[in-house]
Recover the amino acids of this structure.
């Protein structure tokens, strides 16, 4: 009928005497230690991400991209007079560049 009270013995001794304290200790460890570690790592990761965004992405990467755009704008403005559409000016520039290149070769090889 009561199976020699083995179920009661198991419930009172094994479950309540051993499993409950182990589960309570595990729960406390999870709530107080592990969650604190995980939250600390999360906060550290968030802070590192904010610093990378502020100094690397916004400061360095965007600075380089904006600087290259400004340089291209100024270089285009400076080179605009060269592109006049006059063929004789293009020929003169080509001849001048060839003369400078020849002069450099003569100076380097002498």
């Amino acid at each position: 009928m009561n199976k020699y009270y083995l179920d009661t013995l198991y419930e009172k001794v094994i479950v309540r005497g051993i499993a409950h304290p182990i589960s309570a200790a595990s729960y406390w460890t999870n709530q107080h230690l592990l969650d604190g570690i995980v939250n600390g790592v999360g906060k550290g990761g968030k802070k590192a991400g904010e610093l990378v965004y502020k100094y690397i992405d916004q400061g360095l990467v965007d600075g380089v991209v904006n600087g290259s755009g400004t340089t291209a704008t100024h270089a285009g403005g400076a080179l605009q007079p060269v592109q006049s559409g006059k063929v004789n000016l293009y020929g003169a520039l080509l001849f001048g560049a060839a003369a400078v290149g020849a002069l450099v070769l003569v100076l380097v090889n002498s």
In short: The CA atoms of residues 52 and 75 lie 31 Å apart.
